[in-house]
Structures are given as C-alpha cells and as structure tokens.
Amino acid sequence: MKSLSIKDIALKANVSITTVSFIINGKAKEKSISEAVIKKVEKIIIESGYKPNQIARSLRTGNSNIIGLIVEDISNSFFSKVARLIEDKAYKKGYKIIYSSTENSVEKAKELINMFKSRKVDAYIISPVAGIEDDIKLLLNDNKPVILFDRNLPGVDTNYVGANHFTATYQSIESFIKEGKKNIALVTTDVSVQQIIERFDGYKQALTDFKLPYNENLVLKIPFGQAEEETISNIKELFKNNKIDAVLFATNYLAISGLKAVKQINKTIGKDLSVIAYDDHEAFELHTPLISAVQQPLEEIAETVIKLILNQLSSKTKLANQQVIIPAKLISRN
Amino acid sequence: MKSLSIKDIALKANVSITTVSFIINGKAKEKSISEAVIKKVEKIIIESGYKPNQIARSLRTGNSNIIGLIVEDISNSFFSKVARLIEDKAYKKGYKIIYSSTENSVEKAKELINMFKSRKVDAYIISPVAGIEDDIKLLLNDNKPVILFDRNLPGVDTNYVGANHFTATYQSIESFIKEGKKNIALVTTDVSVQQIIERFDGYKQALTDFKLPYNENLVLKIPFGQAEEETISNIKELFKNNKIDAVLFATNYLAISGLKAVKQINKTIGKDLSVIAYDDHEAFELHTPLISAVQQPLEEIAETVIKLILNQLSSKTKLANQQVIIPAKLISRN
DNA sequence: TTGATCTGATAAATCGTTTTATCAAAACCA
DNA sequence: TGGTTTTGATAAAACGATTTATCAGATCAA
Questions:
Q1: Are A74 and A28 in a shared domain?
Q2: Do A263 and A227 share a structural domain?
C-alpha cells in the first residue's frame, strides 16, 4: 500500500517530475507549461488521489505551514478557548496549529521549543515561562516569527499580545473600594510571570491610590500545580485568620477552588463578601449568586495574534515588533 | 544561522556521516564502533548542541514519533482534559501529540486525517464523526494503529475505548424514577454518533423497563454548533410546553445552557426539578444546589488509549483489536 | 598457511520533494 | 539570413538524515 509519489504521477502522465512539481505548485503558467499538459497532469492527480508528501516538501523548503502554539495548560479553559480560536483562523489561511502544554516548567518549555524547531514550524505563539529567554532569542536569530501572548517576557524584544492586566486588576479593586470594602484579599499564584505580577501591581496600586493599607497577610500565593484540596484548605485558612470583605482571584481555576472553599466555611457571597475572578468561566455565570469576572477578549486576542503572524510570514523584510495591549473588561454581575 | 547537520558533526569529528548516525541512534555497539570514537563524537554533539533534523529523519524512516489526536472540540473541557492526560502520558514515552478539532464536520475530519497522513504520524486517536469510515479503513490498510475513543464507529473494525454510555444513562434515569419522577426529559444533540445514540437508548430502555411511557415531546435534540442563546430558548420552550420533573442533559455544554435556561424561568432545581448532566464540569460542583453528573473516568480512558497505542507501535505483528468499555459513574450530589 | 570471522569504519543509495541550470525547437527581429 | 528571445520541457542537485553493502586489516581455527 505504498502511497503515490510525484514520480508515479510523472510516469503516468509521461512527463518529468519537474513538470508535475511546477503544476502542483501553481507555477505552470510562470514556467510556461502548455495548457494541454497542465490539464492532463491535473486529471491524473485528481483521479489518483495523489497528495504530496509534506515531509519531503518541508525537508526541501525548510518550512512546514505549521505554527507551533505553546501554552501553560491546554486543559485550562482560557487557553483551550484561545487555542481553538487561533486554530480556526489559522486553518482558514492554510496553516495548521500544533499545540503543547508547558505546565509552567522551564525544562518542558525548552524541550517543546526544540521539538518544534526540529519539526521546522514556521512560527511560534508562546505563552512563556521565565527562563526561556535565550531559547526565544535563538528563534528570533533564526528569523522565525515569535508572538508572545497572555504574558510578556521582559528582556526579549519581540511581538506581544495581551490584555491590560494592570488596569483590569486596578479597576476590580477600585470597584470593591467603591462598594465600601476595606479588607480586600488577593489570591494569586507563585509563578513569577509578567501577567501575574501586573495583577499584583494593580492590586497594590489601587490600595495605595485609595489610601488603604497594604497588608501582606491578605495576599495568598498558591504554588502552581498544587493539588486542589490543599489550595482549598489554604484559602479556608486565609479566611479564618483574617477579616476579609472582598477577594480577587487572579486566575479562574483559583477562583473555582476559592468558591469551593467559601462554600465549605460559613461565608455567603453577597453583602459580607464580594468576589471577582480573573478570566471568566462558565461556572461564574451559573453560580448563585453570580460571580463577577474580568473577561479577556479572547476573540480579539486570537485575531491579533494570527494577524501579526501572517503579516510576518508574508513579508520578506523583518517587520517592527509590536506590543498590542488589549483592554480586559470587568463584567459586574452583582 | 544555518543549523548544524550531521555532516558538520562528522566533519568536526573527522569521521564519516554513517558513524555519527550510528552513534546518535545507539547502534554504536552493535556496529562495533570503538569506544574512543563514540566518546569523541558524543562530546562534539553535546558541545555543539546539535539536534537531528526530525523532518529528514521522518522522510527516511517513514515515521515521526508523533501521534495525531482528533477530537470534536478542544475547547470542550471533556476533550481538553483527556487531551492533556494523553499528552502527558505519550510525552513520557517519547511521543508527541498534535491535536485538532473536527467541529463534527465530516469534511474537516477528512482534511485532518489527510494532513496527519501526509505528516506521517505514527498513530491516530480519533473521536470520530459518521462519514469517515472509509478514510479510517485506509489508515488501517496502511497498518497505522487507530484508536477510536469516546464514540465508536459501527462498521469499522478497530480499537475502541469509551465509557459505558448506555448503562450510565440507564442508571441516571433509574435514579430519577426511584426519586418518584414521572416526566423525565432528555436534552441531547442531533449528531448521530454512537455515544449519543447509546445515551438515547439508555434513556428509552429505562423508561420501558420501569413502565413509564416514552413521550417524544420530552426529548429535545439541539443542532450541533447552534448559538447558545438559541439553545437556551429551545430549552425554555421545552419546559414551558411540558410538565417536566427531571431532566438529563446528554453533554456538559448542554447542561450549562440548560442551567442558564432554568435560571431564567421560574423553576428551582431541587424538589420540583431534578437534573443530571452527562460529563462533569466545574460549574456543577459549584452550582447551588449541586448538580449531579455522570463522570467518565478521564484518567483511565487516557491511560487505556495510550496503552493500546504503544502496544501496537511496539509490536511488529498486527494485534487483535480491542474494545474497551469503561464504566462511567453517576455522581449523586443531592 | 589458508580460509573464515570479527573489528572498525565508510561510500553510496535512498526517502519525495523543490529548484536551478540547461536545452532544443520555435518564433521573432532587423 | 543569422542572431536573440520565447516556449516548453527536463536532468540533476539539494534538503539531512538512515541503512545497505562493502572493505581492509586483524584475529582465529584447523
């Protein structure tokens, strides 16, 4: 059951391999192949169901029509939704996406980059972890388009698409304060990636601007990858040990654990406790009461990422790097 | 910035390309290469950071160490979670996964299979749509391992891993009946894939066995891919036009839409309306009241899929096809 | 001593494309 | 007419690995 090669087609059509190749690649006109030959070869290709071997093609041309997408965790709904949108849009332009999760491990991220590199992907979309700056610089030296998204990597000069995490966080805290809240907690993760830091900074800045004291006991940093039960018990501790009347969760999975924690202790969300989650989730629209959330414009992020990539892939000259900051918006569900 | 090739390494080490290749592939002993040469070449490889070009390797060997995973929709949490588990497990065995979504389109599914085929993936994990039977048979003829999961394809003789949808549905309906419910609705989709049909059959069989009439007005089939607002309004209609005291949602996203619908009309889940969702979701654990759900054992499914694949990849002879049915369990959260 | 086996290594074919260089014949031009 | 350009097509090199066949010299067995 060997699959057909261009050679078989050439044989059947009684022309050379070169001719077939030109026809396949739409260079027939340019290379002045006669109409009759084009027709004949095309007919044979269709009838035989011949599909060019992409591996051989990639080996020769050095590109693959594949874009590599590296995210933190494909099972997180934020990433899976963005991935799906990116996939759709890329697909329409003839590009395929292959994705993989880093789980925030520097080592795995490096391995993935190497894997993609040895597969000759044409471009990279990366939600990076700190520590892979040099690997990314290598890609850039290699003239491969690299778009960072969701979080930037200070020290790497490339394209970035992300939401305005600082402002969105600031506004969330501001809204708590305007409700009259005074003891505002932040539940975040311990990974030091830029978007998490920005969220932390937005929190602190809002407190300062509105003349509330910053109390580090109200900031809980959950280790990334920690089992959920432990996270829930950490959060219960937080509430037990402190007087808290509002809480911002810096990621949607933390908010989910947090809501479970709140359920287990005797707190009711509403008057005595306000909650905002960062990154929306179906659960928040269904929760009783509804949970407010900071919503990143997924569609717009995906669209921008793809646009930047395609621009670069189609331009022969190196384009100026762009930093696209897209506003995130607080969806108040009170 | 050309990347290094095996030729460069051979040159530097002053040996032949063949020798380097043997060393890279661990055949040095077998091919009786001297210890000294092995050491020298390995040193150069490490120092130079040489990584073999996988494309060239694939072209020559015909395989890729890549497994293709085709799901219905990667942004559905059931699939993204299974995908992530499969990815982890495959990764540990040196295989990479590339995934893509079919969106239940026959055409897109065929295209994806072709894309994977022309990339020479070593094996296929597919959550199929009806209509791609012939394409799958071609893969099998080609001696590529194919594992169907989540839903089987009658008429294709290959491996299958999935939950016992019939029994789980039957038990769900049975539990409604034991609560004393008499007007039990089913909200499902219009796609005629096996797992959906099984769920439907389980529903009907349970009604029959417990001597309840089957009323087709109580079965709502939502077109796949329909906008959520419309789904919600369909479900509201269902409740408006019928006396319903229990409802089984055949997928988690339908359950989410359904819960939103219930929220909008004046129904309260509890005494007057019981709800079970098929496939669990974070939202159900947080909902007030808690929502019961049929939980598929994701970990076990992923584990079994990978095991079947690896067995086949490592065995030279064709193994007998296996149909692994894993029990799904009803998590009662009342 | 001679033929056989082992040791250590390599040259060259191969995988299936794309692309460059080349060529013969026809058409054009002055 | 003879030189130049166009037309229509091809042969062969290249991409970067793996693998088969081959080889010279050393060792061994009888």
A1: no
A2: yes
User: Cis bond leading into A289, ω under 30°?
Assistant: yes
- Co-location of A186 and A158 in the same domain: no
Same domain, A303 and A288: no
Residue A15 pLDDT level (bands cut at 50, 70, 90): very high
Write out pLDDT tens, residues B172-225: 999 999 999 999 999 999 988 888 999 999 999 999 999 999 999 999 999 998
Is the confidence at residue A276, as pLDDT, over 60?
A: yes
For chain B, where are the E strands, in sequence order? 66-71, 96-101, 123-126, 146-149, 159-163, 184-189, 219-222, 246-249, 274-278, 292-295, 323-326, 329-331
Task: Give A58's contacts in chain B (Cβ within 8 Å).
Answer: 55
Residue A227: give its domain's CATH number. 3.40.50.2300
The domain total for chain A is 3
Instruction: Please give the C-alpha separations between residue B67 and each of A80, B116, B128, in angstroms, as whole numbers.
Output: 19, 9, 16
User: Is A169 found in the same domain as A158?
Assistant: no
What is the domain extent for residue B279? Answer: 165-295
Is residue B332 in a domain?
Answer: no
Same domain, yes or no, for A282 and A318? no
In whole angstroms, give the CA distance from residue B313 to residue B307: 10
Q: By the CB < 8 Å criterion, does B117 face chain A?
A: yes
User: Are residue A113 and residue A262 in the same domain, yes or no?
Assistant: no
Long-range own/partner contacts, residues B91-94 (CB < 8 A, 24 or more apart): B93/B306, B93/B310, B94/B65
Domain membership flag for residue A177: yes
φ, ψ (nearest 5 deg) of residue A117: -65, -45
The partner residue sitting opposite A53, judged by closest CB among B56, B100, B118, is B118
Residue A48 (CA) to nucleotide D18 (C1'), in angstroms, measures 29
Identity of the residue in B1, B96, B100 whose CB atom sits nearest the CB atom of A142? B1
Mean pLDDT of A9-28: 94
Retrieve residue B175's tokens: 């539990």
Q: How much is the pLDDT for A92?
A: 83
A333 near B CB under 8 A: no
Pairing relationship of beta strands B274-278 and B96-101 according to DSSP bridges: unpaired
Listed by range, residues with Cβ under 7 angstroms from strand D are A 14-19, 22, 31-34, 36-37, 56, 59-60, 62; B 2-7, 17-18, 21-22, 24-25, 52-53, 56-57, 59-61
- Give the pLDDT confidence of B87-99 residue by residue, as tens digits: 888 888 888 888 8
For residue A54, give the nearest of B77, B83, B119 by CB distance: B119
Residues A228 and A291 in one domain: yes
Please report residues of B whose CB lies closer than 8 A to that of A281: 282-283
Q: State whether A59 and B54 contact (CB < 8 Å).
A: no
